């Protein structure tokens, strides 16, 4: 609402804010339905997806409204967004798949086998086990993409003489490695 009230906010940013408003309203509705109807796996997963979608849009809005970007709109645009965008999309789908696994009870489908799936190998016959292994495979791919994007961004920032940004750019790599380690420890 604040974005729409300000005349100096770009029209595209206003529409992103409008989408974020509807996402958070939809998430609230799904949250209420989840409480009213019990932990329905479809509603719970939808609630998760809308929540992360809202968070993602809020990050985009914050970036678009950053004072440093307003002073120099081209700042940061030189960075090729392809790898970062692909990594973000893969991570989003990994989160959605993790929510599906959690809400549909496939979290322990492979038992305590951290590599394969309890005698079923890397691609077992049962649906829940396949779902679980898909989450693992996508997680490893997402981790590699995030690490590559993080290292690339850090190198670019360091080359531009922006040491603090370069250090910050390494945070996603550290976080994704911690996430993979936590996932393996969970198994």
Explain this structure to me?
By secondary structure, the protein is an all-alpha fold. The protein contains 8 helices and no strands. Helix 2 packs antiparallel against helix 3, helix 3 runs antiparallel to helix 5 and helix 6 runs antiparallel to helix 7. The mean pLDDT is 84.
In short:
The protein is an all-alpha fold and 187 residues long. It has 8 helices and no strands.
Order of helices and strands: HHHHHHHH
Average the pLDDT over all residues and give the rounded result.
84
Largest sheet at a glance?
Answer: none
Give me the number of helical elements.
8
Indicate the low-confidence ranges by residue numbers.
none
The helix-and-strand class reads mainly alpha
Features:
flat; 187 residues; 8 helices; 0% strand
Please specify the SSE layout and strand pairing.
Blueprint lengths: L1 H4 L5 H27 L3 H25 L1 H5 L10 H22 L23 H33 L3 H7 L1 H16 L1
Helix pairs in contact: 2-3, 3-5, 5-6, 6-7, 6-8
């Amino acid at each position: 609402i604040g974005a729409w009230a300000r005349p100096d906010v770009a029209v595209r940013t206003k529409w992103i804010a409008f989408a974020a408003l509807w996402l958070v309203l939809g998430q609230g509705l799904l949250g209420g339905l989840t409480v009213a109807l019990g932990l329905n796996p479809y509603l719970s997963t939808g609630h998760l997806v809308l929540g992360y979608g809202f968070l993602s849009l809020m990050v985009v809005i914050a970036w678009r409204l950053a004072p440093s970007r307003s002073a120099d709109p081209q700042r940061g645009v030189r960075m090729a967004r392809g790898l970062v965008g692909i990594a973000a999309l893969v991570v989003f789908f990994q989160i959605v798949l993790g929510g599906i696994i959690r809400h549909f009870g496939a979290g322990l489908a492979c038992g305590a086998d951290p590599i394969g799936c309890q005698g079923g190998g890397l691609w077992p016959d049962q649906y829940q086990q396949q779902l679980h292994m898909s989450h693992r495979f996508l997680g490893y791919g997402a981790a590699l993409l995030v690490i590559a994007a993080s290292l690339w961004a850090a190198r670019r920032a360091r080359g531009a003489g922006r040491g603090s940004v370069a250090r910050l750019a390494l945070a996603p790599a550290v976080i994704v490695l911690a996430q993979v380690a936590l996932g393996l420890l969970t198994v």
